[in-house]
UniProtKB/TrEMBL annotation:
Its EC number is 2.7.8.5. This is CDP-diacylglycerol--glycerol-3-phosphate 3-phosphatidyltransferase. It catalyses: a CDP-1,2-diacyl-sn-glycerol + sn-glycerol 3-phosphate = a 1,2-diacyl-sn-glycero-3-phospho-(1'-sn-glycero-3'-phosphate) + CMP + H(+). GO terms for cellular component: plasma membrane. It comes from Pseudoalteromonas aliena. GO terms for molecular function: CDP-diacylglycerol-glycerol-3-phosphate 3-phosphatidyltransferase activity. Pathway: Phospholipid metabolism; phosphatidylglycerol biosynthesis; phosphatidylglycerol from CDP-diacylglycerol: step 1/2. It is found in: Membrane. The keyword Transcription does not apply. Belongs to the CDP-alcohol phosphatidyltransferase class-I family.
Length: 183
C-alpha cells in the first residue's frame, strides 16, 4: 500500500491544511508561499499517476485516494479564493467547478455500481481542464500583478468552459444508463 505514488498522494493531502494556513497569514510573502505549495501539490498530482503506471504500482487505495486528494485540494483553494476576491467573477466559476466535481464523482460511483465505470473514465478534455484549472488557481493565489491576475482569470474561465463541456461529455456517455427503464 505505501508505494511512491500513494506516498505522493498522501503528501498532497498533507499539504492542503498547510496551504490554507499560509494563504491566510498576514505577511507579504504568504500568497507566493501558498501558490508554491499549491504548485507543489499539483506536481505531485502529475507524478503520482505517472509513477503508478511507469512503476506498475497502481493500487485500489491509490485509485480511491488520488481523485479525493485532487478534489479536496482544488475545492479548498477555490473556496479560499472566493473568500479572498469576494467577487461573483471568482465565486461563480468556483461554484461551477466544485458542483461539476460533485456531479461527476456521483456519476462515476453510480456507473461503477452499474458495471459501466469505463463509460465515464477520465478523458483528454478532463486533463486539459485540470491543467488550465491548476495554472489559473496558482496565478490567482499568487496575485503577483495585474497582468497575471487577468491571465489567471482568463484561464479560470477557460477551465470553467472545459468543466461544463467535459461534464456534458460524461453525462452524454452515461445517458443511456441514466434513462434506462424510464416510461
Amino acid at each position: 500500500m505505501w508505494n511512491i505514488p500513494n506516498t505522493l498522494t498522501t503528501f498532497r493531502l498533507f499539504l492542503i491544511p498547510i496551504f490554507l494556513v499560509i494563504f491566510y497569514l498576514p505577511y507579504s510573502w504568504a500568497f507566493f508561499a501558498a501558490a508554491f505549495i499549491f504548485w507543489l501539490a499539483s506536481i505531485t498530482d502529475i507524478l503520482d499517476g505517472y509513477l503508478a503506471r511507469k512503476l506498475e504500482q497502481s493500487t485500489p487505495f491509490g485509485a480511491f485516494l488520488d481523485p479525493v486528494a485532487d478534489k479536496v485540494m482544488v475545492c479548498a483553494a477555490l473556496v479560499a479564493l472566493s473568500e479572498q476576491y469576494q467577487s461573483m467573477y471568482m465565486t461563480i466559476p468556483a461554484l461551477i467547478i466544485i458542483s461539476r466535481e460533485i456531479i461527476i464523482s456521483a456519476l462515476r460511483e453510480w456507473m461503477a455500481e452499474q458495471g459501466k465505470r469505463g463509460n465515464v473514465a477520465v478523458s483528454n478534455m478532463g486533463k486539459i481542464k485540470t491543467a488550465a484549472q491548476m495554472l489559473a488557481i496558482i496565478g490567482l493565489i499568487w496575485q503577483y500583478d495585474t497582468w497575471m491576475n487577468y491571465l489567471s482569470f482568463g484561464l479560470l474561465y477557460i477551465a470553467t468552459f472545459l468543466t461544463l463541456s467535459s461534464m456534458l461529455q460524461y453525462l452524454r456517455a452515461a445517458w443511456d444508463e441514466l434513462t434506462k427503464n424510464q416510461l
